[in-house]
Amino acid sequence: MGDDPASRVYVNNKKKACEYCGILSEEYALPYETTQEEVIDLIKTLNSRSDISGILCQLPVPKHIDEEAIINAIAPNKDVDAFHPVNVGKIMVGNYDFVPCTPAGVMELIKESGIDVSGKECVVVGRSNIVGKPQAMLLLHKNGTVTICHSRTKDLSKKTKNADILVAAVGIPNFIKGDMIKEGAVVIDVGINRMEDGTLCGDVEFDTAKDVAGAITPVPGGVGPMTIAMLMKNTVKAASVNKTK
Ligand code: NDP
What we know:
Elements (H helix, E strand, L loop, with lengths): L4 H17 L14 H13 L18 H7 L11 H9 L7 H12 L8 E5 L6 H10 L3 E5 L6 H5 L4 E4 L17 E4 L3 E2 L5 E2 L4 H4 L5 E2 L6 H22 L1
Parallel strand pairs: 1-2, 1-3, 3-4, 4-7
Antiparallel strand pairs: 5-6
Helix pairs in contact: 1-9, 5-6, 5-9
The chain binds NADPH dihydro-nicotinamide-adenine-dinucleotide phosphate.
NADPH dihydro-nicotinamide-adenine-dinucleotide phosphate binds next to α9.
């Protein structure tokens, strides 16, 4: 909805990934002034279409739209972003079909790098509903000992320096410096911050962090592409879940 330039890039990348995977995608680019009722009516139509397996609404939505109402309108079995409260609850319980794409991408990176989470000190900086909270839960399900930090956390460096696995999802460029990281830690940078010169920058100061970390993800090119890959995975899952229902 509207003309947010970052959203345009994300939607285009998702459409390209669908094409690459052989998933049919439909885009509804709604003008900024679309009413909440109109968006919800569209979602209801897509909910009822048997040829549509997954639905997502690219966030953020314009200010006059209640984001929560939009998320709640998507049928949980088609909620490929896994933001609906039913899917959030399933993640808490540990019995889920869909996992939010960014935290799922982080877990896949960890797994594919041969890193065992069990018993590790895991620190997640950020507690948003789409990244920080589900990330913490997924690390917990893998038997990590998880600390969640946020803007009110006192002595953040002390917490981050204790991390064997550190996930930064803050939204502040270069926020985590090398001296906040334990020697040999796994550092995963979720942040995507667009700088004034148009370049992208993470939440971790890569140049100072890379000499301390045992493994580190770059921005761009680290978690971002994984997020889209996990969206494709959730969509294929949705197709199979909905077929068997
Ligand atoms: P939010 O703004 O929703 O959350 C940011 C979190 O950081 C909040 O919990 C906030 O704490 C915390 N925070 C802010 N300042 C501080 C501070 N000084 N010290 C410690 N914690 C702090 O952001 P998102 O979770 O949506 O996104 C985080 C980053 O990840 C952004 O750069 C975003 O662009 C990127 N992102 C990347 C994706 C990808 O595909 N790679 C997907 C989604 C997001 P509090 O709750 O107290 O305010």
